[in-house]
Write a structure and sequence with these properties.
two-stranded parallel sheet
């Protein structure tokens, strides 16, 4: 590998990375604020609401600063990326934003030139960050930026998980049907799965026990949340990763592990009737959302296992009633025409995208999904020729993203399109497009690197 110039970040730059990582990890966009910790509610007010203007936020300002840091590469090296695919993604994102703003169904209280230009400033911040990341002169520039940002994000996620577990241990969790939940923040729990599988990949890469301990702690965190989406996503992602890489040279070990798991599940279901009612409620909430269990009727009101039925009904409604433009900004009252048992907050990202933003918005995200899936298929085809470390890294992200897309069938749209998730989309796309077999080692070491 040729000598690569490594950027030297200033103290101010590191402070920006640190403050952003703290805000990103400790702030939740979950709309159910009434069910959150007082600290979560306070951080929402501080970081996601009016920052000089009711439509702006401190998080948007921090993302703006992160974009400026990334733009530094363009200014200092006077070159931009030549990757045609990344430029195409930027182009379709611009088209997507323009169509959102021109939506004839939008009805906003404070239009500018008759358009909702300031109804959703997250769109502009998203585009700015995407341009800053995608147009970096070289993939290596992105890697140095990415690894610095990820280092602080992972550190703050560990701090947050330990802090919430300690709060619950001292009886200060979130009250949920009489149980102490570590957190009800669905976006936090989803992102925690991504962090968890990254730690599992690092365990395979570095063979250090601290990473497997963190994996276990993050799994306990999911279980004690009593939220199903995060737990299901965690089990699917971690289970698939382990299935691929655990005891890969021993068919006997794989068979024995699968047999033990099956026997454990059978014993679990055979002993349902002897469990205390309080435990049965949790069982029906976790398992009953996917499998009809005995005595399910007696737990129907509190377990609320209706998200799949909601989603299925939304597909029927979508086929018959949704228009190309959706409801548009400020027309949310119209959505009462589409509800399930009085609930207009249908838990289905794909339905919500079409319902609110329009069919073109759903197509836009499907294009992004298609690009990531095509890159994933290419890696899977080359699987046996790749270095183990590279496989662990790429497959951890691919597996997470695959099940995240499936999970979106029963998620609220904010868990797909909120500003935190928009940044996730940009970073996942950049990770898939910019990090390859030739440069991935720069994530871990500084060999053949000179300081800029």
């Amino acid at each position: 590998m040729n000598e690569i110039k490594k950027p030297t970040y200033s103290l101010i730059t590191h402070i920006i990375f640190i403050v952003f990582s703290f805000v990103y990890v400790f702030t939740s966009q979950d709309p159910n604020l009434g069910d959150q910790h007082p600290m979560t509610q306070r951080f929402y007010e501080l970081f996601l609401q009016g920052f000089g203007h009711k439509h702006f936020s401190f998080m948007q300002f921090l993302i703006f600063l992160l974009s400026i840091i990334a733009f530094h590469y363009h200014w200092s090296r006077k070159k931009i990326s030549r990757n045609f695919l990344e430029k195409r993604i930027i182009f379709i994102t611009v088209i997507y934003i323009i169509m959102l703003l021109l939506n004839p169904n939008s009805r906003v209280l404070t239009p500018i030139l008759g358009l909702p230009l300031l109804s959703d400033p997250d769109l502009y911040i998203y585009l700015l960050f995407m341009v800053a990341i995608f147009l970096m002169r070289s993939n290596e520039d992105f890697i140095f930026y990415f690894r610095t940002l990820m280092k602080y994000l992972l550190i703050f996620f560990v701090i947050r998980v330990f802090y919430l577990l300690l709060l619950r241990a001292f009886g200060q969790g979130v009250n949920y049907f009489g149980y102490q939940s570590v957190t009800m923040e669905e976006d936090t729990l989803i992102l925690a799965v991504l962090v968890q599988v990254i730690f599992l990949a690092l365990y395979y890469i570095k063979n250090k026990n601290k990473y497997i301990y963190l994996v276990i702690i993050f799994q306990i965190f999911q279980i004690l949340s009593f939220r199903r989406s995060g737990l299901l996503l965690s089990l699917l992602v971690m289970g698939t990763f382990l299935l691929l890489f655990y005891a890969k040279r021993s068919v006997l070990k794989r068979f024995t592990s699968a047999l033990i798991l099956i026997i454990g599940i059978i014993i679990f279901f055979l002993n349902l009737d002897v469990m205390p009612r309080s435990t049965l409620l949790l069982v029906h909430r976790y398992v009953g959302a996917y499998i009809t269990l005995p005595a399910a009727v007696s737990f129907a009101d509190v377990a609320k296992n209706e998200h799949f039925a909601q989603s299925n009904q939304s597909i029927i409604e979508q086929a018959g009633h949704l228009s190309f433009w959706g409801f548009g900004y400020g027309s949310s009252l119209t959505r009462f025409n589409f509800n399930y048992k009085g609930n207009t907050g249908i838990h289905n990202v794909y339905f919500n995208l079409w319902e609110w933003q329009g069919l073109f918005a759903l197509i836009y995200y499907l294009i992004l999904i298609y690009i990531i899936l095509i890159k994933s298929i290419y890696i899977i085809k080359k699987y046996k020729y790749l270095d183990d470390t590279y496989k662990y890294l790429k497959m951890s992200i691919i597996i997470f993203f695959f099940f995240y897309l499936i999970n979106a069938y029963v998620l609220m749209m904010v868990n797909f399109t909120g500003i935190k998730m928009k940044l996730l989309w940009v970073l996942v796309l950049a990770f898939m497009l910019k990090i390859n077999q030739n440069n991935y080692k720069l994530l871990f070491n500084s060999n053949n690197i000179s300081k800029k």
